[in-house]
Amino acid sequence: MEMAAGGTRVTIRGEGVYDFRKQVGRLKVLLPQDPSGDSPHRPITELLAPGALFMKNRGAGVPADKWVRVETESMADGNLVTGGATDPYAAAELLLGAEDVSFVGEEQVAGVDVRHYRGTADLRRAARHASDGSRDSLAAAAKGFATSRVPFDVYLDDEGRIRKVRHRFSFVNGQQDGPVAVASTTLLFDFGVDVDVRLPDRDDIFAGRIAEE
User: What keywords appear on the UniProt entry (predicted)?
Assistant: First the structure.
């Protein structure tokens, strides 16, 4: 994920596994170095689930063994941007709002032959057609972004599976004078591997206040 605002560009990277049947996943998200050049932050572990995002190592004042839980529909962007990685299921379901799609050509992604399409997705339309797990999040994003229209590039393999999808969001951030440009790229590979994602127990979730860093 790349964010650009006020002449500053920030890149956030993450990698993990995702179960599209259960709509759950686990990611390790690495934040960039501080502008001062200090050592990078510890990776943030994120667990993705329908309607919820769980984060470990996120925020000062949270015990190391505790998780922070956030309801995705409460986020202004529906967790398409805030977590530093776009939920793979939401990234796919956003395409349900696709409009003005054109075929760009045949290419390769990680050695796999793909067909490249380009278009614009409308968040409101996507929310209307999305599954229960994504509907509220996409509806929240439609209200929170500077515009509900999201340009995208998607690369599909011969079986119609998404191998790569790139969305370009315009996000309103209260700390910036204008919208923040966000480009989120999701790469999918190793289809069919076993995925074991266990969500935290209630006792493992932090109930206090996250301190400002």
Answer: Lipoprotein
Q: What is the CATH number of the domain that holds 96?
A: 2.50.20
| Domain assignment present for 211 | no
- pLDDT digits 0-9 by tens, 10-27: 899 999 999 999 999 999
pLDDT digits (tens, 9 = 90+) for 100-146: 999 999 999 999 999 999 999 999 999 999 988 788 888 888 888 88
- 71 alpha-carbon distance from chain centroid: 14
Angle (CA) 56 189 95, round 5°: 85
Q: How much is the CA Rg of the chain, to the nearest whole Å?
A: 17
Q: Quick: pLDDT tens for 36-66.
A: 555 456 788 999 998 899 999 866 678 888 8
Total domains in the fold of the chain: 1
Residue 31 located in a structural domain: yes
3-state secondary structure at position 116: strand
Angle at 90 between CA 85 and CA 95, to 5 degrees: 120
